[in-house]
Amino acid sequence: MQIDPVVLFFLLGLAAGIAKSDLKLPSALYDTLSVFLLLAIGIKGGLVLAKQPLLEILPQAALVIVMGFILPLLAYPILRVKLAQADAASVAAHYGSVSVVTFAVGVAYLTRLGVEYESQSTLFLVLLEMPALIVGVLLARLGGKEGQGKKASGHAWGKLMHEILLGKSMVLLMGGLLIGWFAGPEGIKPVDKLYLDLFKPVLTLFLLEMGLVVAGKIGVLRQQGVFILAIGIAIPLVFSWIGIGFGLMMGLSLGGLTLLATLAASASYIAAPAAMRMAVPQANPALSLGAALGITFPFNLLVGIPLYYQFAAAVA
What we know:
With 316 residues, the protein is mainly α. The chain contains 15 helices and no strands. The longest helix has 31 residues, at 285-315. The two termini are 27 Å apart.
C-alpha cells in the first residue's frame, strides 16, 4: 500500500530525531502551524454544515457528540492502570478525538470499492474533535494537584469551564466551524486557497515536528512499550464497534457505518496534540503520539479500515 506523504514527513522527523540531527523547527512556527490546522479543520466542518439542512442532521450530530464524550471516558480507566494522571488524560483525549488522514484513507477505500457514504461524515469528523479535548482537560484538571483534597467551589468550576471552553484550541475549532458555516462555500472563496488548499502541505510540516517530538521522548515510550502497543491496537478494535453501534442508531448506510467506525477507531495527531500541549503541558507527548501515530495510525491504514468495513457489512 502506498504511504501517504504526510506520514513520510513524520517518519523523517522521527529518523532525524533518533539520529540526533540538529533539525529543529522554530517554536513560533510550531505554534503558528497549530493555530492554522485547528482553524482549518473547523472551517472544513462549517462548510459541510452550511450545505446540509440543519434540522435533518441535528439528531445525528447530537449522537456523534455523545459518542465523542463516551470514547475518552472509556479509555481513561484502562490507561490509568499504567499511566500517570496527566498522561492518561492526554492519551484518552487523543483516542476520543479523530485522525483526519485516517478518515481520508477510509474515504479513498470506499471510493475504490464503489461504496457510497453520507456527505455529513465530514461534519462528524469535526464534531468528534471537540468533546474528547474537553474531557481530556477535565480529567487532567480534576485529578491534578489543584483538585486533590478539596471540594471544587462554584468559582473554581467556573474558572475551569472558562479555561476549557475558551482555551485556544476550543476557540479555534469552534470559531472555524462558525466561520465556515456562516460564510458558506461562496463566502469562503477569498481565503480558501489558504485554509483549504494549503491544509495538507502545512500538515506535513506539523508532522515533521511531531516526529522530532516523539524521537526526543523515545526513552519514555520504551518504558511503556508493551502497554502502549497493546492499547494502540485493542482500543481501535473495540471503539470501531462503538462507532458502528452509534451508526446503526443513526440509520447510516454501509459506507457511513464504515466511516464512523473508522473515526471512532482513529486517534488524533493534529488537533489533540496541539490542544493537549496548550492545555496539559505536563503530559508527555511521546506516549500519546507514540500510541496514536506510531501504532494506531499504521494499524488502521494497513489492517483496520478493511476490517471495519467487514464489521459494518456484517451488521448493515
